[in-house]
Q: What sequence folds into this?
């Protein structure tokens, strides 16, 4: 009797190629339509995507742009924040969130996160407010929503702007205490997202979008993203050049239709991980607050009593990728030294940076891959 050997596909942190192959025909068709139209900047595909994205979010206004970092910068420019104004943001996030604060000569004020959700702590926000505070930038980290209802209450109390960094949580639903729901990125005064290829809704290049429910802000955002002009060659304000190109819009048009399916696939993989690691004394699996549904941009564990770096090395030897998001928080980055980093004591953030590890998470994970990953992690920790 012949022996059959079933080979497991190589495990990747993100598998955009396999995902593409499943939608190849439709994606290729959209790209070729752009090439045939010669509408490379703006045009039908960009308008189609902006409208579809707006409908998906049930947003009043959606403005596309070149990337998620630009989205944050344009948002802050539209709010007329002035040099020296303070912007409260978590330290435990990617550099883009705070980099644009410094770029605009504003002052980043780093605060703690909740150790369970990894998202900004409302209590820490309240303590950090001064007469110079003008805005709060909550980050929906790893796919879990920040506590927006509390953040918005604080913002209203102190007359502050709220800019949501939704680069990692597109598609997430937020439920308010009265039962109403909204998509993340549509709760604050402005919401920003990224279409970097590894994101839940990823382009095959780069891209971003900005959301607002305010008509006046929408007009300013659109102008700033287009050299400060509403009428061509009539520049009413300082702007920048930040446009989503039509080829990326064509790709995103196809993938947006699949976004909810992609999220469901991520949740299925997360459920497998959760079950495998359930009740392990040295592993804390991702927490999900009652006010949101996790979209698992990353699947991030907290390890206790485990040598994380040795685990990562062991996994690499087994051809299992892993990542540390993020090893150096904002309040310890050299780029922000001029803002008085010696004054910060963020124990929770520092504790997390020493213990978190993210496992492969994408739409194409197969059960045998998940089984192999979890078995090897448990082998390392238990032995």
A:
């Amino acid at each position: 009797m012949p022996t059959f050997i079933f080979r497991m596909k190589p495990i990747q942190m993100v598998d955009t190629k396999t995902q593409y192959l499943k939608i190849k025909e439709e994606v290729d068709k959209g790209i070729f339509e752009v090439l045939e139209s010669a509408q490379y900047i703006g045009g039908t595909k960009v308008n189609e995507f902006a409208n579809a994205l707006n409908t998906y979010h049930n947003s009043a206004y959606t403005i596309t742009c070149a990337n998620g970092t630009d989205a944050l910068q344009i948002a802050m420019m539209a709010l007329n924040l002035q040099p020296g104004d303070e912007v409260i943001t978590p330290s435990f996030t990617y550099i883009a969130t705070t980099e644009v604060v410094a770029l605009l000569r504003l002052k980043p004020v780093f605060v703690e996160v909740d150790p369970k959700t990894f998202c900004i702590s409302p209590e820490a926000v309240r303590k950090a407010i001064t007469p110079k505070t003008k805005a709060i930038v909550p980050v929906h980290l790893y796919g879990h929503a920040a506590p927006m209802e509390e953040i918005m209450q604080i913002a209203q109390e102190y007359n502050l702007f709220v800019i949501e960094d939704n680069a990692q949580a597109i598609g997430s639903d937020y439920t308010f205490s009265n039962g109403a729901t909204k998509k993340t990125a549509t709760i604050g005064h402005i919401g920003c997202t990224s279409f970097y290829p590894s994101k839940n809704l990823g382009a095959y290049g780069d891209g971003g979008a900005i959301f607002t429910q305010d008509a006046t802000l929408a007009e300013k955002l659109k102008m700033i993203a287009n050299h400060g002009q509403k009428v061509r060659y009539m520049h009413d304000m300082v702007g920048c050049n930040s446009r989503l190109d039509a080829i990326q819009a064509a790709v995103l048009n196809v993938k947006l239709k699949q976004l909810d399916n992609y999220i469901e696939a991520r949740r299925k993989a997360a459920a497998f991980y959760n079950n495998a690691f359930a009740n392990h004394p040295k592993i804390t699996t991702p927490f999900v607050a009652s006010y949101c549904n996790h979209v698992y941009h990353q699947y991030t564990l907290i390890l206790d009593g485990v040598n994380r770096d040795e685990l990562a090395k062991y996994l690499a030897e087994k051809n299992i990728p892993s990542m540390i998001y993020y090893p150096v928080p904002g309040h310890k980055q050299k780029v922000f030294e001029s803002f008085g980093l010696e004054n910060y004591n963020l124990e929770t953030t520092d504790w997390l940076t020493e213990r978190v590890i993210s496992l492969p998470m994408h739409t194409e994970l197969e059960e045998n891959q998940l089984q192999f990953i979890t078995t090897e992690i448990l082998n390392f920790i238990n032995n």
In short: The chain has twelve helices and 14 strands. The chain has two domains: 18-256, 260-382.
